[in-house]
Design brief:
The structure is a homodimer of 154-residue chains.
Chain A (H helix, E strand, L loop, with lengths): L5 H12 L5 H8 L3 H13 L3 E8 L8 E9 L7 H4 L1 H4 L4 E7 L5 E7 L2 H12 L5 E14 L8
Antiparallel strand pairs in A: 2-4, 2-5, 3-4
Helix pairs in contact in A: 2-3
The structure holds a DNA duplex (30 and 30 nucleotides).
Chain lengths: 154, 154
DNA sequence: CCATTATGCGCAATAATTTTGCATAAAAGT
DNA sequence: ACTTTTATGCAAAATTATTGCGCATAATGG
């Protein structure tokens, strides 16, 4: 078990918002020396609290203009192993997120693609052919008010 | 307009997966000098292709064990300005993502909170009190098969 | 089609940042 | 209270990032 004190939480709070601050800038804000910040971060990484560092890229700049949520229901017997039921989906770069959920559907899947045409192809060529599909519903995002929001640290 | 050549795309592809590679490591993989990688990244940041750098933090380590999707419908007249209709939500740290969507509901909102109790409080104290709410539906994620997947770059 | 200009490049010097050895101080355990 | 462990800051060392410069290549314009 890993316990996080207020310094750790503050580091995580700040770095979630800008992971490119230098240790110098970080140390000012949390009131610790740079060396200690460095060591604490190393520990948080080692213990898996920090899972990685990534870029936020503008989807538009990549020509990805459509975000959609796909709701999937499977035939009952396919749900003993949810992961393998949608294994083919998880590998696809269009799939940003995939969860099993309570409610009418079994999976909720977030995809980001170039166009409505690409969404349509994805549904027809990747989702529909999956084994044991019972139902597919799709909702297209028109306006993204917030994404990749940081987790609360307090 | 910003055009991205194969080097830019390769940089974005790699850094989305690990934004902490050094310019040296990066330069090997893309076959460019470190100085040129540095300059290209500076440009991508300047032009907004790279929107920022962030941490992937383990929700569990922060005691955040519940991910849920909240579906919100508003009274018709509240939807002329979607953003202000949910402005109070966007500020909240529990809200990771918020979109307007096609279909039965107006908004889809992803939240990450500590417990089902916290989810319940959030719904009762933050969502329900919003002005002009017509309907609320919630789906709790049981298993997260993929999150924060990188965008496709090709 | 050549001249001019602009853009992209790598190298090497410089600057900035991160990591580590070490001594000290604070906590924790006995 | 005493010992052991853990956390800390400082300063040196190592690593990494940035920039000036000269050269090449490609785009622009006459």
């Amino acid at each position: 078990m890993t316990s996080l004190d207020r310094f750790d939480l503050k580091l995580l709070h700040i770095l979630q918002r800008d992971a490119r601050l230098t240790l110098g800038q970080l140390s000012e804000r949390v009131n610790l020396s740079t060396s200690q910040c460095s060591r604490r971060l190393a520990r948080l990484e080692r213990e898996g609290v920090i899972q990685g560092y990534s870029l936020r890229v503008s989807p538009d700049a990549l020509g990805l203009q459509v975000t959609a949520f796909i709701f999937l229901s499977m035939d009952k017997h396919r749900m003993d192993d949810p992961r393998s039921a949608v294994a083919a989906l998880l590998k696809r770069d269009e799939v940003i997120e995939c969860h099993t959920v309570t409610g009418n559907h079994d999976f909720i899947i977030k995809v980001v693609v170039g166009s409505l045409g690409a969404l349509s192809s994805f549904l027809a060529e990747v989702v529909s052919p999956l084994d044991g599909i019972h139902d597919i519903a799709t909702q297209v995002a028109m306006d993204t008010l917030k994404t990749n929001g940081p987790l609360r640290t307090d």
